[in-house]
Amino acid sequence: MNSLYLPHLAQITGIKQETQDIKTFKLALLDLSAGSFFNYRPGQFVEFSVIGEGEAPFCLSNSPTRMPKGSIECSVKKIGKLTQALHDLDIGDRVGIRGPYGNGFPVEQLKNKNLLFIAGGIGLAPLRSLINYCLDKRTEFKGITILNGARTPKDLVYQDEYEHWRKAKDTQLHLTVDCQEENWACMVGVVPKILETLAPTCEDSVAILCGPPVMIKYTLPVLLKLGFCETAIITTMEMKMKCGLGKCGRCNIGPLYICKDGPVFNYAQVKNFIH
Ligand SMILES: Cc1cc2nc3c(=O)[nH]c(=O)nc-3n(C[C@H](O)[C@H](O)[C@H](O)COP(=O)(O)OP(=O)(O)OC[C@H]3O[C@@H](n4cnc5c(N)ncnc54)[C@H](O)[C@@H]3O)c2cc1C
Ligand code: FES
């Protein structure tokens, strides 16, 4: 019998150590009848299970335009039981995948706009999916600015893609770390402070941010001060989840379910729930 909760079997086909505690897993679905996977959107997520250990949500971290049919990528930060079990896996091991779930980024709303991506740490994962999507459809969007922060240079994810991003037409990449370190030639300072200094235009622009709650909290007032309207600020929300399908009631903020109505929201939708 078909069950919504039954995961599809997938095999790990690649593992990249991004930082000391973050790995990117490339996965190929073994059950090719799981057709919906072939049509995921940037900003959606999957429920990822390790047999005998449990299940947790992870966003799809690369653009559907860059993945072969039936393949996905997820970047996982090691913080607890399941993520440790994931980090212990090798190429060839099998895992379970349910999804894709969630709304994804409002790509149509972003067309013909200047895009300002703001990320902190592993928060770059869902944004990378959208950044690469926009770069692959470059003529549909105006200028692209990426501000990416991490605690130290060693904590910056997707470093081997920066050159490609820098060279893309009308695209700027700004990197920042919290403290000065030897041989670090980019910026130093927390993301909201650097954003204030860069002061990007709000005209015809949409800001898309993802990162730790503290980064989101202090970045939002800067964006409002720069003149971004509430519906032109888009953020992803995270919360403990169970079903991922809007059925168990675990992930609500006010009347919204993060798994079903999100995880992507504009600021007007969630401003009363961000503290
Ligand atoms: C929609 C969505 C997308 C996500 N995408 C990614 C992703 O791309 N990469 C990634 O590394 N992680 C992502 N996460 C977070 C990921 O699901 C958790 O890190 C994972 O569930 C932790 O499982 P664990 O068993 O290793 O840790 P646990 O043992 O469950 O928890 C360890 C510690 O982390 C805290 N914690 C657990 N889950 C969360 C959470 N969601 N938010 C804040 N704190 C938490 C716990 O309270 C505890 O203190 C996402 C979460 C959501 C809801
Ligand atoms: S995780 Fe069950 S309702 Fe969202």
Summarize the structure.
The protein is α/β, with parallel strands linked by helices and 275 residues long. Helix content is 20%, strand content 32%. A seven-stranded mixed sheet has the order 10-9-8-7-11-12-15, sandwiched between helices. Strands 4-3-6-1-2-5 form a six-stranded antiparallel sheet. Strands 13-14 form a two-stranded antiparallel sheet.
Description:
- The structure is a single chain.
- The protein is α/β, with parallel strands linked by helices and 275 residues long.
- The protein has 2 domains: 8-101, Beta Barrel (Elongation Factor Tu (Ef-tu), domain 3), CATH 2.40.30; 107-236, Nucleotide-binding domain of ferredoxin-NADP reductase (FNR) module (Rossmann fold).
- The chain has 7 helices and 15 strands.
- The protein has helices at 81-87, 107-110, 124-136, 162-167, 191-198, 213-225, 267-270, and strands at residues 8-19, 22-29, 45-50, 54-59, 71-77, 94-101, 114-120, 144-150, 171-177, 187-188, 205-210, 233-236, 252-253, 256-257, 264-266.
- The strands form 3 sheets. Strands 10-9-8-7-11-12-15 form a 7-stranded mixed sheet, with helices on both faces. A 6-stranded antiparallel sheet has the order 4-3-6-1-2-5. Strands 13-14 form a two-stranded antiparallel ribbon.
- The model has no long low-confidence stretch (mean pLDDT 93).
- It binds flavin-adenine dinucleotide and FE2/S2 (inorganic) cluster.
- FE2/S2 (inorganic) cluster (FES) binds at residues 241-244, 246-251, 257, 259.
